């Protein structure tokens, strides 16, 4: 961002009647561009990513909305704007080594999320598409991942602070390469069980207005926030 543009943005912040719709417009344009990029490049990139991880024998699988579209619709969801992948944590897993591996593949880390000093999510960029990697912790035969979001009803101390949801799922079983049309993707054999735990029993019915947690059942209460660190190492 140029110096003049930064100065203009600072001035606009002082005039809320202009700044709020300005931010809304910028966000809309950014989201539209991300959806276009995913539609244009997503299938090819997903093929490359999944075949890459399969050869590396890393316990990584398509997760959340990405897996939902591939299992239910046999394609990526039309209104989605990125790729979601899960990592099953183990004593051998290291974010540092993981980043080195992705760098070899031409992927660049653009942000990460931290909860109580531990990295639980990282986002990478390749071919104009962002890929979110969620770290799943394993406990008592289940696994859980933390999902970060901003609640408009909460006053945060900084732009880096985020509320956190914990999403618990059954353990994934036998991750392998599967096919949906011309897409090869990594998925567990119990994908339907996983999707039901995330989206409920009606997961097979498309819902463009889907709300991830309307009653805040999975939200960590109080001010126990996570943080976003946009500085790549």
Summarize the structure.
This protein is of the alpha+beta class and about 230 residues long. Helices cover about 35% and strands about 30% of the residues.
The radius of gyration over CA amounts to: 18 Å
The arrangement of helices and strands along the chain is: HHEHEHEEEEEEEHE
**Low-confidence segments:** none
Distance between the terminal alpha carbons, to the nearest Å? 21 Å
Shape: globular
Average residue pLDDT: 88
Question: What strand order characterises the main sheet?
Answer: 3-4-5-6-7-10
Could you say which structural class the secondary elements and strand pairing correspond to?
alpha+beta
Residue share in helix: 25-40%
| Main sheet attributes: strand count, strand direction, barrel closure | 6 strands, antiparallel, barrel
Give me the number of helical elements.
Answer: 5
How many β-strand stretches?
10
Estimate what percentage of residues fall within beta strands. Answer: 25-35%
């Amino acid at each position: 961002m140029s110096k003049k543009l930064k100065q203009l943005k600072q001035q606009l912040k002082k005039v809320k009647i202009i700044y709020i719709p300005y931010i809304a417009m910028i966000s809309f344009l950014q989201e539209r561009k991300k959806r276009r990029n995913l539609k244009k490049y997503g299938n090819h990139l997903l093929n490359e990513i999944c075949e890459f991880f399969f050869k590396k024998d890393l316990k990584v699988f398509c997760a959340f909305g990405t897996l939902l579209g591939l299992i239910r619709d046999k394609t990526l969801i039309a209104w989605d704007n990125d790729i979601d992948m899960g990592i099953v944590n183990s004593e051998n897993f290291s974010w540092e080594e993981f980043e080195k591996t992705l760098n070899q593949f031409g992927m660049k880390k653009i942000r990460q999320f931290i909860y109580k000093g531990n990295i639980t999510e990282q986002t990478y960029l390749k071919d104009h598409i962002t890929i979110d990697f969620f770290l799943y912790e394993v406990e008592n035969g289940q696994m859980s991942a933390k999902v970060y979001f901003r609640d408009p009803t909460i006053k945060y101390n900084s732009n880096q602070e985020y509320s956190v949801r914990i999403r618990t799922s059954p353990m994934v079983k036998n991750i392998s390469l599967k096919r949906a049309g011309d897409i090869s993707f990594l998925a567990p054999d119990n994908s339907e069980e996983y999707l039901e735990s995330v989206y409920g029993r009606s997961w097979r019915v498309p819902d463009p207005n889907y709300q991830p947690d309307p009653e805040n059942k999975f939200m960590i209460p109080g001010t126990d926030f996570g943080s976003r660190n946009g500085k790549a190492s």
